[in-house]
Amino acid sequence: MKETAQSLIGPFKEVVTMEGLPLEGPLKDQSVPIVKEGGILLENGIILEVGPFEDLKKKVNGSISHLPFPAIAVPGFIDCHTHLCFAGSRVSDYAKRVSSMSYLEIAKAGGGILDTVKKTRAASKEELIVSLNKRLEEVISQGITSLEIKSGYGLTLNDEIKQLEAIKEASLKSPLTIISTCLAAHICPPEFSSSKAYLDFLMKKVLPLVKEKNLAKRVDIFVENGAFEVEESIFYLNFAKTLGFEVVVHADQFHPGGSNVAKITKAISADHLEASSEKDLLELKEAGVIPVALPGASIGLGMAFTKGRKILDLGMPLVIASDWNPGSAPMGNLLAEAAIFGAFEKLTISETLAAITSRASHALSLKDCGILKTGYKADFTIFETSDYRDIFYYQGSLKPSATYIKGTQVFSKDKF
Known about the structure:
36% helix; 8-stranded mixed β-sheet; TIM Barrel; globular; Amidohydro-rel
């Protein structure tokens, strides 16, 4: 049998492994597992061991990469909620919002999601792939190694399939771990007389074809005034589950109700939750639904944040995602959003880091990333600093020096 080459990277001032931390509830910074003057030993893209660099040097059967500057390593970031496949811009919506129009008012006036739908329908699959690839390059440079991408800007059979095929084809050429979600139930398009008629169409035509082509394993729905109501959303998601899809929910962004859908359908996650009450959150906890905060949308819309501190204090597993989309969350910077959210919600640094690494992996049902430990994928991000807390202290202005996915360096600054 051919012997495989090992590789050792280090020494790091700190390797923040996130190993052994609980999935739920508050975290203290003192509990974060850190290996000082550590190294990461890997083979075939998998971590063999994390430990003191000098000890690992005696074990390695292969190359040793010495870092040229003081640095720390953390698990690669995981963004579990994005809308990265789209065409066009919604800068006109933003200008209206900062001039005091609400998100729902803009949508009623012809802007909002349907504006992006028009532009995405007009784009070819090849054009969508080109623009998506550029965003994926940006994602990697931000230290993200796994992410989710939704459809939802097609809203016809052909255009939803076009979006999902663009995501699949781009993912085949990207080192990122990419999870596709069918969000055809984003909003009712003008071709249909009612949301019920549209959901019937999705259940009869779209979801079966998505399943047949294996374009997504997850189904999402936007439960909100002007989108889809509670009862029809429950029926739709339960149907999706009969086809074998996992389900997630856009819940309680502007009004309550969506969290009830997530509870009843036992969704993997309920995302947004800005309008959730403590009762709503406790019901999600009882149902085992993961709460996902999307601070990018709060920043983009000038709205209150999800109650992150409350979620943790209730003993729940807070996750943070970017919601990168052309309308409500155009920033597309997970680290900056998480840091700002942490400052406003009084999250410890360890709680914020867990929300985009070890805890975020569960929102995508990923079992081999988010933690730096033996047997997990060698997905990690390197920052030029001696203290991992600087990542959040600088609120996104401290950029990664390198990103590794499955042990391969997929991004680096010039001097690395």
